[in-house]
Design brief:
The protein has 13 helices and 18 strands. It is α+β, with helices and mostly antiparallel strands. It has three domains: 71 residues, Dna Ligase, domain 1; 118 residues, ATP-grasp fold, B domain (D-amino Acid Aminotransferase, Chain A, domain 1); 149 residues, Rossmann fold. The longest helix has 14 residues.
């Protein structure tokens, strides 16, 4: 479960990490008074669970309360990568001398955690990591030992951070371990011109298995989450909205992740992650298609199923029945392989829906879905 920025900052403050004073509001009418309480000049920041807010125009400086009201009005209601802005945070601006990047992330492959830090934080940290990887330190952290004050100093030194950033690294680890987090990130962590170390932004992802301990974050997420994700959740679907044009349905998380990669390799962008698991019944397929076709960004749909316990003929039958209740408005490419694949393909051939195509290979189906999306 991802937190909003203001929620992440709240956690940081609870664990002794300094953050600028801020207020969260839901209407432009509240902005003028809030800005006045914060000193007049504020940064207005869209609260959505996606990156790239600044480049999308979702982060702006307002010189006074009147400007804060106007800016808030402009940002509220924006669509940023499929996320509607329903709240904004007004924060006191600070004079920045240096920007850094710090984070902890779970490293599942190696069974440990990874500290990632750089003395060159800010909006272009991804470019820094790609073009000059030596500028980004990656330090393994033993989950049993954790980040002691000594380890925090080691991480700071490896990333060429100032020594007074080490206490933040120590406290950030406490956020990770005490709040059931899988990722904590501060970008940027800054030194101000008056010598303070502040977290200006934050990203926290909590372990879904610990939701029963983290229920305080659920209400706002339900109210302000992506509407497609909310609709999918209501239907019991494992769906994540992405920034693309090819809708994806698959059975099994590993297969779906591979499908995303293959579609991207064909020059298209996946519009979503949707794992229907082992059950590809007509009801499940109809629900999945309904959610995906509700996304205006989707230009084509790729159903990629490997038959196992659920055979391909059952999947094909589910697709045919789903199309009786869901009006198909975008081309649909189906790849069936595995248990009873030939029988499943025959069922779809017999149905002969004008917008349904088949391919016997994943690469071929992905390529065709990408072509159809590009031609739409």
């Amino acid at each position: 479960m991802d937190l909003y920025e203001h929620q992440a900052r709240q956690l940081f403050a609870e664990h002794g990490i300094a953050v600028p004073q801020a207020e969260v509001i839901e209407s432009a009418a509240e902005a003028k008074a809030a800005a006045g309480r914060l000193g007049g000049r504020v940064v207005v920041k869209a609260q959505v669970k996606t990156g790239g807010r600044g480049k999308a125009g979702g982060v702006k400086l307002a010189a006074d309360p009147a400007a804060a009201e106007l800016t808030t009005r402009q940002i509220l209601g924006m669509d940023i990568k499929g996320h509607r802005v329903r709240t904004v945070m007004l924060a006191q601006p600070v004079d920045i001398e240096e920007e850094f990047y710090v984070s902890y992330v779970l490293d599942r492959t190696n069974g440990t955690f990874l500290a990632i830090a750089s003395a060159e934080g800010g909006m272009e940290i991804e470019e820094v990591a790609a073009t000059r990887p030596e500028a980004v330190a990656r330090i393994p952290v033993d989950p049993v030992e954790g980040v002691t004050e000594k380890k925090a100093a080691e991480i700071a030194a490896a990333a060429a951070l100032p020594p007074d950033a080490a206490p933040v690294l120590h406290r950030l680890w406490q956020v990770l371990t005490r709040e059931d987090a899988l990722l904590v990130e501060v970008n940027p962590l800054v030194r101000t011109t008056d010598g303070r170390i502040l977290a200006l932004d934050g990203k926290v992802t909590l372990d879904d298995n610990a939701r029963f301990r983290q229920s305080r974050w659920g209400a706002e997420d339900d109210a302000h989450g992506n509407p497609l994700e909310a609709a999918a959740a209501a239907k019991g679907l494992n769906y994540v909205k992405l920034d693309g044009e090819v809708g994806i349905i698959g059975n099994g998380a590993g297969l779906v992740m591979s499908t995303l990669d293959v579609v991207a390799g064909c020059g298209a962008r996946p519009a979503n992650f949707l794992d229907i698991g082992g059950g590809a019944s007509a009801a499940v397929m109809a629900d999945g298609l309904s959610v995906i076709l509700s996304d205006p960004a989707v230009k084509s749909v790729f159903v990629n199923v490997f038959g196992g316990i659920t055979s391909c003929d059952a999947v094909a039958d589910g697709i045919v029945r789903a199309l009786q209740s869901v009006r198909l408005t975008k081309p649909l490419v189906v790849r069936l392989d595995g248990n009873n694949a030939a029988r499943g393909r025959a069922i779809l051939d017999a149905h002969a829906h004008p917008l349904v195509e088949q391919s016997t290979t994943m690469d071929g189906a992905a390529s065709r879905a990408a072509q159809l999306a590009a031609a739409a």
